[in-house]
Design brief:
By secondary structure, the protein is of the alpha+beta class. It has a domain of 113 residues: Beta-lactamase. The chain has an eight-stranded antiparallel sheet, with helices on both faces.
Length: 390
Amino acid sequence: MSDAAKKTREALSVAGFLLPAWRGLDRRATINNQREGDRWQFGVEHLLQPGRWRRSWRLAQPTFPSSAANPFPLSLVGSAFARQATPSSRLESPAPPRWCQVARKSPPIQPEAVYQAASLTKPVTAFVALNLVREGRLDLQAPVSRYLPDGYKHRQHPFNPQKAALVDLVPASTLAQIPVATLLNHSSGLPNWTSGKLVPAFEPGTRWQYSGEGYVLLQTVISAVTGEAYETCVSKSVFQPIGMRHSALHLTDNIRERLVNGSSRSQLVFSEANAAASLYTTAEDYAKLLSALLADTALLELTLAKPIAVDPALGLTWGYGWGIETTNHDAYLWHWGNNPGYRAFAMVSLSSRNGFVLFTNSADGMPLAAPLAQATIPAEHGVFRFSMLG
């Protein structure tokens, strides 16, 4: 059996949400995920029919109602497993899940199962920053040096606690060249990650380059503006008011009890907050974040303001915190996440307000996003041809 075929026999844990509440829940939808050569198919049938087991998805009624704070009630798609499958086979019945080796100690998947959201942390950070903008406490056009006049202590190995002491000082003269807005839309010129000194590779604001480092710098700016730890800011302005009860920015005992292990022996363990990558959350909680953004017209308009080009051929630009896909008939917010052993994707239509949140505990989980998008927000989505998506 080929290595690719062996991978298809691993179990894949998936959590998902559809939003808002669907009309016509008896609609029939089928999702197939095929790998060329092995022709492995992951099927989801009767996706929108509540209360039914079909293949590998458990469906349920909406889990919380609409309210003034949350006018878009969400429908739980639920927990799913990719069960043992061989090339050219189809998953016909909900057989007991077969965990892959590194996930055997994971708890049974429940709606409150927690995953690493990876880069889906960045829209949470943007949510905080843009609310500070609305309060008049943060200026998007101001240079970062206004908030960090003494410079920025940059950690050169943010994911390696043993090398936490390796830092370099980014001087205020460099920060003076970087507008706050460029940190949010990935045009600061800073790299995604670097183990050396942090310097912009090009003039900030002139083009797009994805940057985790930019969001960690923004984390320090947020703390400087508020006088509080970044994690405290997120808890006060996001988790608590939105009701994200099963979310945290570092691995706590409560999170550990619900965490679905990633299918990688080198998965990250976040002992402290990282504004670009450390969110632990559930599909339900993250859908609440999307719902809150959609419900806040002013915040949504600010998110969409002054997008920068990413890939014009695919209709992709980037706003403040979210990717934007524009088609002939609609526009969509989207973001992906990629940590070792985890893949995540969220997408929502700005016209219909339909969308989904997908979390998986496998490096092979991202291909599930495209067919799920076709079932929930059907269109010719260029984002799934984006070279960085994986």
